[in-house]
């Protein structure tokens, strides 16, 4: 990894440097571009246009408002979040070059002054967790370039972890913000469902999809969350004292079959929290695995076959879902698309059972847990293993066994996604091989601001400051 230029890499520090005049927006953007160009081998981006980035940076300097809100701050947007500035192709050939208008959440960020720094590489159509994409190439983990960065928001995580961009926006259907954040050693937040608008995003599932901020610190995620939720006037300085925090530790399901290094770092993190005054309540969430499995893929696969055609008809009517399938280049995604279109989609009866019966039971299981145990959130390892080698697309090694890659990596992030509750992944340390490990806290539905305040407090205990 090349040495970082001496520029701030958090939003907070950038805002301060801009306002004090210590840094101009244009000089900062020049440093961003220089670093990006020196790290092209990481393949963090699908599309960049440096001149298109320099011009608004100069405009910000001329207006003299750099550092007010997000003015002058470049963000990496995942390639399925249309910005109206650069193409958003969902990293698939059929949608290449599709600029269109801005999605509503991107509009909120751009109206607050954010700049489109680049479009982040991702797993094709967001249907996977490796970001090993046959169309756009594999994104590489900056901690070890032979390893995956996670996905599907892998490129955004790489750009932030490598110190190219100060922050970014991913999307999360079953873990796609939190998972790459954990594997790349940054912070990733998935909000309660519908906290942010979803209009204009390239979809997988309207019940499960959400955008989410990714950054180096919880505070930066809080800054972005306020804008994305349309609450930028609200105070984001709520403080949670460590001694007031109660966390559930659901060892059943969430702590099963952990990689030894993930287990070691997780136990060390829990001990640090206990020593700092956090109350830990050992209690499992009843039937969480069974309920999650019964609604996860039925919802995602059924809604994908409704939502993607609707998106195409609205925004790119000359492209059909068959065109997308015919041009999907990644074997896992191509195979899935062919299966859905040829063998038939998820039956509506299975979907209705999942969405009307099983998902409400899962949501109730979480709500009862938080209420009955009197806890603010649950805490568990974000992933059961660290970053896998690039190429382990179908199976991955875990404790001497080859297991299916996708379900193994989303094992812990998926239940909260299906329940629609907020979750945030924080980095807690490095394995003995130098790979980051994350820990996640999930809170009750609509407890987003409290959960972020708790995460802020926990971050100070973990104090993870290492950089690749």
UniProtKB/TrEMBL annotation:
GO terms for molecular function: hydrolase activity. Keywords: Hydrolase. It comes from the Bacteria. Gene3D superfamilies: Amidase signature (AS) domain. InterPro entries: Amidase, Amidase_CS, Amidase_dom, AS_sf. The keyword Hydrolase applies. The keyword Hydrolase applies. Residues 29-452 form the Amidase domain. This is Indoleacetamide hydrolase.
